[in-house]
């Protein structure tokens, strides 16, 4: 059975399988500007992966800024990432323009390995590929501690639940 979400009310299939709490965090290869970043390159501490379709849309911008603001109190006890298919240069411009300093942006534009392996790539049903809105928390041991696939891509995630899971994973 296909793993799906809706985009503006229309059902769209997602590549890969839905991750569940307790699963090992899958490998990926993303870009931060022109540097490759893999799961192994992220620190072995609690990590939040906020997945958005495009930073240049209102809900994605709000999601990134809300997590950025909420994470400042946790300091370097956690590592936090916004993942999208935006080009790395556009991500960098967005963060500079919006004052985003806590979230690190990762672009999955190269081979979509994050989208495919984490079950968030919308491969069909839209005129271009996008990542579905989702939030994951990975614990220090590399296991999924929280997974939310937002059922309607244009809706916001459950910020409080994600932050609670991140704080618990960081403890």
Please name the CATH topology: Glutaredoxin
**What general outline do the C-alpha atoms trace?**
globular
Strand order of the largest sheet: 7-6-5-10-11
Query: Which value, in Å, is the CA radius of gyration?
Result: 14 Å
By DSSP, the count of extended strands is 11
| Average of per-residue pLDDT values | 93
Low-confidence stretches: none
Question: Which helices and strands occur, and which strands form pairs?
Answer:
Blueprint: E1 3-7, E2 10-14, E3 29-32, E4 35-38, E5 46-51, H1 58-71, E6 78-84, H2 88-98, E7 104-107, H3 113-117, E8 121-122, E9 130-131, E10 134-138, E11 144-149, H4 159-170
Parallel strand pairs: 5-6, 6-7
Antiparallel strand pairs: 1-2, 3-4, 5-10, 8-9, 10-11
Describe what is shown at a glance.
The chain is of the alpha+beta class and 171 residues long. It contains four helices and eleven strands.
If you had to describe this structure to a student in words, what would you say it looks like?
This protein has 171 residues and is of the alpha+beta class. It has a single domain (3-170), classed as Glutaredoxin (3-Layer(aba) Sandwich), CATH 3.40.30.10. Helices cover 25% and strands 29% of the residues. The chain contains 4 helices and 11 strands. It has helices at 58-71, 88-98, 113-117, 159-170, and strands at residues 3-7, 10-14, 29-32, 35-38, 46-51, 78-84, 104-107, 121-122, 130-131, 134-138, 144-149. The strands form 4 sheets. A 5-stranded mixed β-sheet has the order 7-6-5-10-11. Strand 6, helix 2 and strand 7 form a beta-alpha-beta unit. It is globular. The protein starts with a strand and ends with a helix. The model has no long low-confidence stretch (mean pLDDT 93).
């Amino acid at each position: 059975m296909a793993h799906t979400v809706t985009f503006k009310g229309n059902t769209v299939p997602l590549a890969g399988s839905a991750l569940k709490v307790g699963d090992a965090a899958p490998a990926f290869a993303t870009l931060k500007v022109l540097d490759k970043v893999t799961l192994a390159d992220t620190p072995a501490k609690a990590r939040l992966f906020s997945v958005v379709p495009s930073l240049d849309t209102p809900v994605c911008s709000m999601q990134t800024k809300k997590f950025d603001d909420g994470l400042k109190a946790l300091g370097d006890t956690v590592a936090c990432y916004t993942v999208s298919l935006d080009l790395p240069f556009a991500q960098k411009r967005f963060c500079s323009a919006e004052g985003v300093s806590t979230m690190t942006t990762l672009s999955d534009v190269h081979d979509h390995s994050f989208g495919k392996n984490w079950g968030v790539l919308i491969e069909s049903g839209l005129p271009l590929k996008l990542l579905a809105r989702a939030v994951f928390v990975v614990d220090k041991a590399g296991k999924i501690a929280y997974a939310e696939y937002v059922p309607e891509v244009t809706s916001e995630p459950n910020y409080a639940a994600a932050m609670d899971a991140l704080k618990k994973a960081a403890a």
